[in-house]
Amino acid sequence: PRYWLIVPAAGSGQRMKADCPKQYLQLNHRYILDVTLSRLLENADFAGCMVALRADDPWWSKTASSKDERVDTCIGGSERANSVLAALEALLDRADNDDWVLVHDAARPCLHPADLGRLIADLRGHPVGGLLATPVADTLKRKAGDSNAVETTVDRRHLWRALTPQMFRFSALRRALETAIASGYPITDEASALEHAGQIPCIVEGRPDNIKITVPADLALAGFILSRL
Ligand code: CTP
Ligand code: MG
C-alpha cells in the first residue's frame, strides 16, 4: 500500500483572533502552513499530498508550498471532518482502498520527524490504524452541571490527548467520515469517526510538544519548540 497525506487547512482560526487564518501567520519568517507541509514531505515518502483550503483563500498562492509539484489542493468544508472528506474525495481516482492516509492539522508545525516515523512504522501492519497521542499531564476535575462546584477528580491514568498525524486506510476512513457526518455524530478527529464505525484505533505515543496553534500565546511557544527540535 502507498501513503497519502491530507492536510486540512480550511479553518478560519477564530480563537487566534488574527487578521488572517492562523495557518498563514508567520513562524520564523515562513507561513505556518509551509513549515507544517515541509516537515511532513521531507520526512516521509508520500504518493501524493492534498491540502484542503477555504474557497475564498487569497493567501495560498503566496506560499512556497503552492509552487511544490507534490502538493495538490481542494476546497474544504464547514467543519474539519468535511474538509478531510473533501480531500479524500479529491484523491479518489488515484488512491486504492487499502492505501494508508495520514491526516495532519495545518496548525501543527512542530511535528518531530521521529514521531512521524514511529507512527508509520508502528501502524503499517495494523488492521485499522491509529494516531499519535500523549498522556494527560494535569489533574482533571469534572464540574457539576453549569456550576463551578467540583463533582469529582477524574482518573487520568487512562486519558490521552489526541494529536495528529492520524493514519487510517483510505476507504475505511472515507466510509467512517461519511457515516459519522451523516448521523450528526460529533467528530473532532479521524479516530473518533473510526470509533463510531466500531473500529479500534491504536495509540502511538507522541511528544507533547506537537502542539496545535490555537490561541495567540501558542505562536511564541511554537517558535521556541521549533528552535529546539
Ligand atoms: N480545519 C479545516 N476545515 C474546517 C475547520 C478546520 O480544514 N472547516 C482545519 C484547520 O485549518 C486546522 C485544523 O483543521 O488546521 C484544526 O482545526 P482548528 O485548530 O479548530 O482550526 P480553526 O478551525 O481554523 O480554528 P478555530 O476553531 O479557532 O476557529
Ligand atoms: Mg476549529
TrEMBL record:
Keyword Nucleotidyltransferase: yes
GO molecular function: 2-C-methyl-D-erythritol 4-phosphate cytidylyltransferase activity
One Pfam family named in its UniProt record: IspD
Reactions accelerated catalytically: 2-C-methyl-D-erythritol 4-phosphate + CTP + H(+) = 4-CDP-2-C-methyl-D-erythritol + diphosphate
Pathway: Isoprenoid biosynthesis; isopentenyl diphosphate biosynthesis via DXP pathway; isopentenyl diphosphate from 1-deoxy-D-xylulose 5-phosphate: step 2/6
Its EC number(s): 2.7.7.60
Residue numbers marked as site, Transition state stabilizer: R15, K22
CDD domains in the cross-refs: CDP-ME_synthetase
Key words, A-Z: Isoprene biosynthesis, Nucleotidyltransferase, Transferase
InterPro entries noted in UniProt: IspD, IspD/TarI, IspD/TarI_cytidylyltransf_bact, ISPD_synthase_CS, Nucleotide-diphossugar_trans
UniProt site positions, description: Positions MEP for the nucleophilic attack: R156, K212
PANTHER family in UniProt: 2-C-METHYL-D-ERYTHRITOL 4-PHOSPHATE CYTIDYLYLTRANSFERASE, CHLOROPLASTIC (PTHR32125:SF4)
Function: Catalyzes the formation of 4-diphosphocytidyl-2-C-methyl-D-erythritol from CTP and 2-C-methyl-D-erythritol 4-phosphate (MEP).
Family the entry assigns: Belongs to the IspD/TarI cytidylyltransferase family. IspD subfamily.
Protein name as catalogued: 2-C-methyl-D-erythritol 4-phosphate cytidylyltransferase
Organism: Marinobacter iranensis
